[in-house]
């Protein structure tokens, strides 16, 4: 007896998309392709780069005017949480270039609503993780020495626990967000399918994704070192490279003919 349409639809929920295995240094190739995308869509890249620069610039403003370095770690993790949710517009630009179309700002903005249920769900997921992180950061702050000029030894417990907790949360966010937005935008699947597939893809390509993670951290550090001005180029670069990584790793039934 054939299964009903509702049953077929139910069995598709939270499935795991298959992944390709890429070389360890593949992320460098993704960055090279991303530079080409920037050259092909310079104005759109600049517009999004300026928008993205506001976020790290706001973090630096907060650090400067708060008069304390204690906000740096929570702000850095918050930046890592917020970034993936706002990259859909740049993914659309890379996707339009892939199809041989001329990307436009209007089309890229509309892409943010292509899969509203999934994208809102993903944004809420990141928001929940960020709230958890802020609560944990407040608890960790209790370990900060209550002395005017604490020594490194006195700060060791605070720094160690903060680094471990922040690192674990960033690793979790990296795994669930590496390919989730791209999958939901192109495939229009449910959020669980996208998240499970992203985690599986990261696990399958652990070495390459470790290199990719190091490159992201390195470029973000450069961005902050330039007073956030570097993010005008860095954020479009990372977004385009993420799209190329998605194309290289997440399998499709039909060959794409695009790197």
TrEMBL record:
Q: Which InterPro entries match?
A: DUF2189
- Pfam short name (any one): DUF2189
Recorded protein name is DUF2189 domain-containing protein
Keyword terms of this UniProt record: Membrane, Transmembrane, Transmembrane helix
Whether Protein biosynthesis counts among this entry's keywords is no
Membrane among keywords: yes
What residues form the membrane-spanning segments?
A: 46-64, 70-91, 120-144, 156-179, 210-234
Query: Which domain of life does the UniProt lineage start with?
Result: Bacteria
Task: Name the source organism.
Answer: Pseudoalteromonas citrea
């Amino acid at each position: 007896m054939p299964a009903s349409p509702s049953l077929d639809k139910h069995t598709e929920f939270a499935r795991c998309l298959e992944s390709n295995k890429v070389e360890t240094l593949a992320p460098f190739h993704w960055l090279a392709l991303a530079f080409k995308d920037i050259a092909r869509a310079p104005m759109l890249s600049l517009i999004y780069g300026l928008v993205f620069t506001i976020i790290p610039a706001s973090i630096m403003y907060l650090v400067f005017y708060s008069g304390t370095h204690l906000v740096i770690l929570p702000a850095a993790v918050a930046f890592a949480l917020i970034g993936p949710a706002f990259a859909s517009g740049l993914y659309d630009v890379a996707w339009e270039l892939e199809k041989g179309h001329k990307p436009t700002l209007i089309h890229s903005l509309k892409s943010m609503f292509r899969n509203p249920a999934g994208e809102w769900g993903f944004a809420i997921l990141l928001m929940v993780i960020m709230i958890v992180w802020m609560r944990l950061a407040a608890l960790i702050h209790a370990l900060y020495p209550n002395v005017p000029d604490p020594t490194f030894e006195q700060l060791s417990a605070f720094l160690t626990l903060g680094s471990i907790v922040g690192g674990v949360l960033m690793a979790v966010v990296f795994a669930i967000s590496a390919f989730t937005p791209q999958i939901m935008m192109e495939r229009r699947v449910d959020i669980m399918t996208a998240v499970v597939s992203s985690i599986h893809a990261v696990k399958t390509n652990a070495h390459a994704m470790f290199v990719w993670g190091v490159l992201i951290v390195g470029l973000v550090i450069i961005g902050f070192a330039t007073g956030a001005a570097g993010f005008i180029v860095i954020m479009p670069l990372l977004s385009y490279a993420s799209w190329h990584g998605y194309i290289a790793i997440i399998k499709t039934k039909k060959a794409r003919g695009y790197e």
